[in-house]
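Narrative summary of target 7.
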Amino acid sequence: MIQYVGHHNAEAEIIWRGDPSEPKWSAVWVEDDRLIAAIGVGRPRDVIQSRMLIEAGTPIDPELIADPSTSVSAAVAR
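Modeled conformation, tokenized:
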């Protein structure tokens, strides 16, 4: 299943969470260390957690969110 949340533009940085050639992966779009959009293929939890961070405007840590073994919600900036 493919799920998408948010709105991104061409200038936003894309961060891959996993390998898109695999059956399950996700990616997020970031501006000013905040998520603005996310797509998930077989990873609905990533999309649900991304929606919460997008709506809250919570700053994220780009290194943490790039690691697919780290939950999206655990990738908040400290």
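The chain has a mean pLDDT of 96.
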